[in-house]
Amino acid sequence: MFSLITMLGDACPTIHVVDVGAMWLGAEHLAYKALFKAGIAKVVGFEPVQVECEKLNALQLQNHSFLPYFVGDGSERTFHLTNYSMTSSLYPPNEKVLKLFNQLREFTTTIKTEQVQTRRLDDIPDIIGADFIKCDVQGADLDVLKGAEGHLAKALVVQVEVEFLPLYEGQPLFADVDTYLRSHGFVLHTLEDLMGRAMKPLIVNGGLDKPVHQLLWADAIYIKDFGRFEKLGPADLLKLAVILHEVYGSFDIAQFALYHYDLKTQAGLWPEYMKQLTGQVPTLTPAVG
Fold it and tell me: How far is it, in rounded angstroms, from Cα 45 to Cα 22?
């Protein structure tokens, strides 16, 4: 895959990233790692587990800042700290479901609860832009999105963890998140990291973390509705093309965004992109309604 960032050179835009649930697992695990490695991501992240937030800030990553806020709908909630920090949540672990599957209950045991005040993304002045919103907060993702309607109106891509079974009591599921984001002008682009576990007592090929078929959670990627690209400004179309190409390898929709960019700017990026992508000068153009 060639680099669209390199192709654009000095014209490559900065991508503003909001990372909710930013616990550091290494650069290779970042949802926006291609943007991070290229140095074009400006990130505001949120990690409510204090020790984990301190680790993030200790990294002193350029153009990154991390805040120890509980992000949600702005209400007071109960935070359930678990024996494995990554599974902590504003919703209580659903032991009735977790105990059915291998290696879930063992890593999702509440060891402490505390009352916390959540903050809406729309109310946090540290966020000056949100082109790409990544959300992974163990069942409370829809609460985060509902507190970010202002940012969603301008966001281009949302990557959100979704669950297909209630791993936490009372949590919204994939269908709820999907309905909400569609109502705000997004379409489902793809599902990544589809995960599951085998139901006990079966163990698949000696791996406790391996599924048979039952899906439990995944990362759902939503993008601004490509049927309405003509409503986006040139800057947003260029940013969207960069994210789609570099982060997801979604060349078909990236080129469609660049085509709309050229319609507005006459910059000539689309034929250059298609030539680098296919090795040929394009003779056909996209269908535009």
Answer: 6
97 alpha carbon, distance to own chain's centre: 25
What does the pLDDT look like over 131-179, one tens digit per residue? 999 999 999 999 999 999 999 999 999 999 999 999 999 999 999 999 9
Contact 253, 244 (CB under 8 A): yes
Residue 71 bridge partners (DSSP): 119
Task: Point out which residues pair with 55 in neighbouring strands.
Answer: none
Sequence-distant (6+) residues with CB within 8 A of 202 are: 212
Per-residue tokens: 272: 């250059």
> Residue ranges of the alpha helices (H) in 41-85?
50-58
Tokens of 124: 């946090």
Q: Token match 């400006």: residue?
A: 42
> Which residue(s) pair with 191 in the sheet?
220
Q: Which residue bears the tokens 């902590």?
A: 88
Residue with tokens 């080129």: 255
Residue that has been written with the tokens 């260029």 in this structure:
238
| Domain, as residue range, for 210 | 11-74+118-224
Is residue 28 included in any domain, yes or no? yes
Compute the C-alpha angle 173/51/174, nearest 5°. 5
pTM for this entry = 0.96
Directed axis angle between helix 269-278 and helix 251-265, to 10°?
Answer: 150
CATH classification of the domain holding 141: 3.40.50.150
Which are the contacts of 91, defined by CB distance < 8 A and separation ≥ 6?
A: 80, 138, 139, 140, 168, 169, 170, 171
CB 78 within 8 A of CB 54: no
Count of domains forming the chain: 1
